[in-house]
Every structure is written in C-alpha cells, then in structure tokens.
Design brief:
118 residues; alpha+beta; 27% strand; globular
Length: 118
C-alpha cells in the first residue's frame, strides 16, 4: 500500500461547536485519501448542523480538478465516513482515467485498436 503524505486540510463547523477530538479524526480521515492520489494540493471539511441532521462536505483539490462530496445524516460520524467514502470513489475514478489516458498515449496504441474486433 502506498505511503500517505501530509497536505493542508482546513476544518470548519457551521451552526455548532465541534470538539477537538472530532476535528482531529476528520482531518486524519481526509489525509488518508492521499493513498489514492499522490498529488493532492489541499482539502476542506465543512460540518453544517441543520435541524436535526448534520451535513458534511469534503472537498479535495488536485491538479486540474476539484473533487467534492457531501452526505447528510443524523449522526455526524456516519455523515463524515460516507462523504470521505464518496470522495475516495471519485479520486479512484479520476486516477484511473489519468492512468488509462497515459498508458494509451505511451504505447502509441489508440483505444479503438485495443478493443477486440468482431
């Protein structure tokens, strides 16, 4: 498994006070996303308390794209986990597109040529 690296993550709570333990856990979860993309510039976690649910939005900046995912739930920990999971899925999808694009250009074979003909 690739090593993670440190990138700046900002954290903001709206309409409620978040304790330091939750803030640290949220920032650590977002930093773990660096396992899936090695060029993350920065990240943002926004916790918004809406009566009675909590909306968590995770935003990651990578070169050429901004990946944003949010989830709303009554439990802020569940909302955070779901938003991070959605972000992870988007990062993997972006990463696979970049890798597939590079492979087809490096070999000099177009995508049409690699598909089997019937």
């Amino acid at each position: 498994m690739p090593n993670t690296y440190d990138f700046p993550v900002s954290f903001k709570c709206i309409h409620e006070e978040c304790d330091d333990l939750f803030k640290t856990a949220a920032v650590d979860e977002v930093k773990k996303l660096s396992k899936y993309h090695t060029h993350i510039i920065d990240g943002t976690v926004i916790i918004d308390k809406k009566n009675p649910s909590v909306k968590v939005e995770v935003s990651i900046h990578v070169p050429g794209a901004v990946i944003t995912a949010s989830h709303e739930d009554y439990n802020r920990v569940i909302a955070l986990d779901a938003a991070v999971e959605k972000t992870k899925t988007q990062i993997k999808k972006l990463r696979s597109k970049v890798v597939d694009h590079r492979v087809s250009h490096q070999t000099g074979i177009s995508a049409e040529e690699t598909e089997p003909s019937e």
